[in-house]
Structure formats: structure tokens, C-alpha cells
Amino acid sequence: MQSAKDAGLVRCSECALVCSFQKNSRCPRCNALLTFRQTNSLQKTWAFLLTACIFIIPANFMPITVLISQGKETPDTILSGVITLVESGSPGIAIIVFVASIVVPLAKILGMGFILISLQLKLNMSHRMRFIMFKFIDWVGRWSMLDLFVISIMVAVIDKGQLLVIVPGPGATAFASVVILTLLAAKSFDTRLMWDLEKDNDWTN
Amino acid sequence: MAMNKYNETLVACEHCDLLQVKQRLQLGQIATCPRCGSRLYFNSSCSPMSMLALTLTALILLFPANLYPLLSMTMVGSTETASLSQATLKIFHEGNYFVAFLIFFCSTIAPFLMLLSLCCASFVISFNLQTRWLKQLLKWVDYLTHWSMLEVYLVSFLVALIKLVDLADIELGVGLVCFCLLMIINSLVLSYYDSNSYWQRVPIDAVS
């Protein structure tokens, strides 16, 4: 059992053709530049992650929607929206929104941070565990878009002019940035770096 | 530029780089990586011709799903309808261009372009046409699947529905039926699409 890199072979990042590696050469099938690993993968992931860390603060504390009823403005943050849902008697939906908009972005940032740190400190942990963790983070990330889609539907439907209007607040922009940044962070992370760590190919654990 | 040697009998895992010899699979079988457990390649029971039919159906459904109302709502005497495209346009008019673009991209543009590229690629392969665009189409399919979020949109719709149901009288629209069908066909397309066999139809010596 050996990795392609150890055999001097490289998998084309676009079309998956296995080629022999030469510096600055391109894939004979799809013409993509061949590299063993994504270039600067860890740096890029850190950059996206830290930016997401900054944006998650306004995303949670600034109003994500503003309800204007007869001239009176009621701003709603993500958390206050969830609380309203609980009070109005739909705890199931409240849990979905809470998980998708608060737990998932936070868990993504913490989880990716943990994976990156454990990788760079070469902590001794099961590669398979770490990989499953990453796969989960990668899969669950897209569900954070849920809240933005909900807002777009609410804004479209509730439009009664002077009586009752919902408009997206500044928190929505910050939240959208967090979603994009965490998606990009997961995309720029090269999982093969995790398996490169194992020196003695002891991958059975 | 030096031409690289390649080996089509080998496969390297996308996620852990484990090198292995390709096996011949029976129809519908999936080969997974013994080290990290990800899917390596599979023998899809869906031919490019069937894929062409599926993607065409999805492309046709995409228009009513976007343009017909998902729901209409009666509140304080007046009725509002909302279609997917209207919902995006509203946010755009509020001046939140960034959020509007993101929603538009993930719910409409990405699925549309992904299905269109896959439809064209299936067409090219089914009828054995020669075009230098095939590899570009396959690359687009790969980039865009990541950003196409139809299933997330459907769940969002349900969440919005439950939020609204207490406020007003709601009637579901034709658009919703089309959207559900679109989502089902889209997930069929995703699970049957075999990128490996598509890429194998790209001629290697045609590259400059």
C-alpha cells in the first residue's frame, strides 16, 4: 500500500488521470497543471477560516432581518429569531434553524481549526477519525445556506407596504460571508496532507 | 512542454492518494478506497443516453420551478405570490446585492449551468461527436455540483412555510410541484453521474 506521491505519480486534480510527475507539466488529458498536493493548502484554509472567525461576530450580533410594522422597526438577530420560534410553539423548526445557523458555522470553524492544528503539531490521532470529521464538516457546511433561503422567501411573501414589511439586515451580509468563507476553507483543504503524516503506513487504526 | 507519461490502469484516491490498480466492476458496483473509505470509481447503470434524458427533463423543469409561484399567501385582505425568482429579485431590490447574488447563484445559476454542461457532455458522448469543449464541460460539472443547493432550498421552503402558516392563509403553487420533481431528478443525476467513464471518452492525444 503506497500513495501515488511515493511512487512518483500524480493524480490530476481535474480529471483524475494518474500521470508521472514532472515539474511544471500539464495533464495530457485535460491540460490542468499537475501538482502533488494543492498549492499552499494549509495557508489558504487558515486564511479563509480566520476571516470567517471575524465575520461570525457581526453575523450573530447584528440583525439578520428587520420587521417594519406601521413604521415601527423590530430587528431580529439569528438567536432572537430562534427564541421567537420556540415561543410561538414550533420547537422542531427552532432546532433546525438553531443547528443550521448557529451550531453548524461555529462547529465548522472550531472543527477545521482543530484539524489544522492537530495536523501542524503532528498530534497522534487516528487518521480515519480525523478524515471522518472533515468529511462531516464538508457535508454539513452547505446546510448553513438554509437561513438565507428562508429570509429570501419571507422577504418576498411578507410585503404589505406601510403595514408590514420584512427587509434583510446587515447581519445577513455577514452571515452570507461566513457561509461562503467556511465552504471555501473546506474546499481549499487538501485531505491528502493528513495521510502524508503517516511515516510507517500504519493506517489500520 | 514535456509530455507526461500516464497510466490508465491505475487509480489514486482523491482524498488519501492511495495508489491502486483498477478492477473491472459489474454494473452498479462501487469501488471504495480501503484506506479512507471514499468512493474511488463505479460502474454506473445509467448510460450517457439515459443521462441525457434525465438532464433534459431537469432542464425543462427548471423553468416552471423558477417562474411559477411556490406559494401564495393571503393576509390582511390581499394576496401575495412568491416564486423562486421573485424571492431573489426582492432581496436584490432591497439593495443587498451580495446576499441576492449568493442566493441566486446557489439556487438557480449553479444547478442550471451544471445540468446544462452535463446535458451537453452526455449529448457529445452519446453521439460520439468530437469537440474540444468536452473537457471544459466536465470541469464545469465538477465545479458547479459543489454550489448547487436545491435540496437545502427545499428544506428552507418548509421552514419558511411553518413560520408563515400561523400568520396567514397559504396556498401551495404549481412551482412547488415542479421544484420537488426537479430536486428528485437532480439527485438521481448526481448519484448516477460517473465522472470517470465520462473522462475516459476525452481523447488524450488531442491535447496540444
From TrEMBL, chain A:
Pfam families: PqiA (PF04403). Keywords: Cell inner membrane, Cell membrane, Membrane, Transmembrane, Transmembrane helix. It is found in: Cell inner membrane. The chain crosses the membrane at residues 46-68, 93-119, 140-158, 164-186. The keyword Cell inner membrane applies. It comes from the Bacteria. Its main location: membrane. PANTHER family: INTERMEMBRANE TRANSPORT PROTEIN PQIB-RELATED, INTERMEMBRANE TRANSPORT PROTEIN YEBS. This is Paraquat-inducible protein A. It comes from Motilimonas cestriensis.
Automatic annotation (TrEMBL), chain B:
This is Paraquat-inducible protein A. Keywords: Membrane, Transmembrane, Transmembrane helix. Pfam families: PqiA. The keyword Membrane applies. It comes from the Bacteria. InterPro entries: PqiA-like. The lineage of its organism: Bacteria, Pseudomonadati, Pseudomonadota, Gammaproteobacteria, Alteromonadales. The chain crosses the membrane at residues 51-76, 97-125, 145-165, 172-193.
